[in-house]
Design goal:
Layout: H1 18-22, H2 42-50, H3 55-67, E1 69-71, E2 77-79, H4 92-108, H5 112-125, H6 130-142, H7 146-159, H8 164-176, H9 180-193, H10 198-210, H11 214-226, H12 232-241
Antiparallel strand pairs: 1-2
Helix pairs in contact: 2-3, 4-5, 4-6, 5-6, 6-7, 6-8, 7-8, 8-9, 8-10, 9-10, 10-11, 11-12
Length: 242
């Protein structure tokens, strides 16, 4: 139980304060004031390190010691603050790739508006990517806007003349816009690069049938049918009966 010194019971042992404990050299004897050693001065430490005959070296040691700590406003010394971690922003081309991927995923789900928005963001960040232009153009073709698709597909093919999807989709856009000659040229180019494209075969076959090229149409429909492309057999039958 704690109490003041004047109320201490007789025979109760004396207690020591923390300051008293810190100033003893053993368990019983207090240190006399004359026995306390003064703290070493920086100058003395520096001279002891290099010797009194080398004052310039001693000064260098003192500077090195003082640089290890920094003095705060209240007089205490603390370690120098750690350097701040720099946050590097993500490169625009990486951001564009993420938006392009989101466009591809929306394309696969036939979410046309979401796909257009994603491809548009990708194009804004990286306008030199032919695939993003081709993706947005392909969405416009499939969503009933072939005229709006043509500028995107033209730009994609300007960046990459052999881009397969852009070449085929521009053929379809041209066909829907009434440019049969341009559409056939794009279909021919596409099929010269990828002759087993069932969609392109079916598209070119339809154009050939409209233009009176029955044999050419049957050849395209027959190959598309062997590839099991949807509706190719129906078009083949129609061409033979025509």
């Amino acid at each position: 139980m704690f109490g003041c010194g004047c109320c201490k019971a007789e025979g109760e042992p004396e207690t020591q304060d923390a300051d008293d404990v810190s100033r003893t050299t053993d368990d019983s004897k207090p240190v006399q004031p004359t026995q306390l050693s003064k703290p070493a001065q920086p100058e003395a430490e520096a001279v002891a390190a290099v010797g009194p005959e080398k004052p310039a070296a001693a000064e260098a040691v003192m500077k090195k010691q003082s640089s290890k700590t920094s003095k705060s406003k209240d007089g205490t010394r603390s370690a120098a603050p750690a350097p701040k971690r720099l946050i590097v922003p993500e490169a625009p081309d990486k951001q564009a790739a993420k938006h392009h991927k989101a466009g591809d995923e929306a394309f696969a789900r036939q979410e046309w508006q979401s796909a257009i928005e994603a491809y548009s963001k990708a194009i804004e960040l990286n306008p030199s990517c032919a695939a993003s232009w081709a993706g947005r153009g392909g969405v416009k073709v499939r969503s009933g806007n072939p005229h709006g698709a043509l500028p995107d597909l033209d730009e994609a093919l300007r960046l990459d003349a052999d881009h397969l999807f852009a070449r085929r989709d521009r053929a379809e856009a041209r066909s829907k816009c009434g440019d049969c000659q341009g559409a056939l040229a794009d279909f021919d180019h596409k099929l010269s690069l990828a002759p087993a494209d069932g969609r392109a075969l079916l598209g070119r076959g339809e154009l050939r049938l409209k233009r009176g090229d029955k044999e050419g149409a049957i050849a395209d429909f027959s190959l598309a049918s062997r590839l099991s492309y949807p509706h190719a057999s129906e078009w083949l039958q129609k061409a033979r009966q025509n």
